Every structure is written in structure tokens, then in C-alpha cells.
Amino acid sequence: MGSKNKLRRFKENETFANVFQPTREELVDSNFELKGHWRSTVFKNNNPLVLELGCGKGEYSIALAQKYPDKNFIGIDIKGARFWRGAKTAIEENINNVAFLRTQIELIDHAFAENEVDEIWITFPDPQIKYKRTKHRLTNIQFLKRYKQILKPEGVVNLKTDSEFMHGYTLGLLHGAGHEVLYANHNVYKQEGSPEEVTSIQTFYESQYLEQNKPITYIRFKINS
Fold first, then answer.
1. Which CATH number is 88's domain given?
2. Would 71 be classed as within a structural domain?
3. Is residue 7 situated within a structural domain?
4. What is the overall mean pLDDT for the chain?
5. How distant is the alpha carbon of residue 143 from its chain centre?
6. Which residues form the catalytic set?
7. How does pLDDT run across 117-152, given as a tens digit for each residue?
8. In terms of residue numbers, what domain contains 196?
9. Which residue from 36, 56, 70, 71 puts its CA 20 to 30 A from 63's CA?
10. Confidence of residue 25 (pLDDT cuts 50, 70, 90)
11. How many domains in the chain?
12. Within a 10 A sphere around the Cβ of 7, how many other Cβ atoms?
């Protein structure tokens, strides 16, 4: 994507009512007015709040919002030029139960209040295979602590990935730390009984992975204290 195109998307994002772009200072200094008020201020209802972390173009967030109109969805990514597509689609198609937040996942506990979130989706994250990159792996111990802080006591996390490494790493970590694995499948499209919301929604890249016969893995879990 050219720099002119990026700039145009950044400018358009600023006009979208469903896009929120707080500064790092606003979040860290606890001045973010939506923290604890996403339902009442943004969605104007008290429906369950679901986050998609690293949402990319927002395909999964949009599809989930269409599938579950009685839930609120927020796609989160630091790259606003990417989720511009999802935000624009939501406006064009009048999908009012989805919004987008531009921030780093590391700051998630500054953007949401304790017990504010019902569910988290992590879809096709970078597995950060190199050892020195483990601090950026979205299911490491530090990230799980952040998720625990904002999730309701019964809140769940979903990990869907084409990375067998990420799947195995996460399962090992969850079992080792005593967290509750509700469902795990190393090839959701080949085994019967896979959750419908996992197999009925596909991103552009996911369909490419399937064409290459790459198995898509899935874990649904609860984070215990």
C-alpha cells in the first residue's frame, strides 16, 4: 500500500464514528473516557462485549457482528490503515454492533475496565517463533494476566491459528499454569463437532491457508487466577 493511500485511510478513519484512536498518554494516564463505558457510550446497550485482538482488516470482527447482533464487538489493531476496511464496511452496511480501536495490545488493560469484557478472540496472530520475540506472543503469561484483568470471571478466550507452534505453545502454557481448556482441536475443518462460529467464518488469508491444506487450529479457554 502506497503512503498516499495510507494517509487517505488515516484521514478517513478520523471521520468514522466507529473508530477510536486514543493516544498512549490518554491510556496510560487513565484519562481514556471510554474505559468502563464502552457499552453505554458506544453501543448504547448492555449486551456482551467481545474483543478481537490484532484484527487486521476487521473481517472476523465484521463477520462475528453480523452473526451475533445481540453482542458488541471491538476489533483492535495498531495498524489503522488495515482496519479502515472493516470500519468502512460496517458504516456502509449499517452494522452498528462493531467498533475499532487503534492501540497496542500491550495497553489493553488501560483501554478496558476490570470485568468489562465477556470474550476475547485472537485470530491468526504472529506466532513470534524466535525466542527473543516471545514477549510479543499474544498468549504469553504477561498477556494472559492482562486478559484476566479485563475479562469477567466467566469470560473466555478463543485462539484460532494456522501455526501449529502457537497452538502447541499455548496448550502447554495453559495446562502448565492450571488454566481451563474448554476445547482444543488441531484441525477444525477435518474433525467433526468443531464449533460453528469457528468454521463458518473465514478470513481472506485463512481461505488461502486452506487451499494450501494447512490445518487450522483452535483453542477455547478460561484463565484461572
1. 3.40.50.150
2. yes
3. no
4. 93
5. 13
6. 126
7. 999 999 999 998 886 678 889 999 999 999 999 999
8. 20-222
9. 36
10. very high
11. 1
12. 11
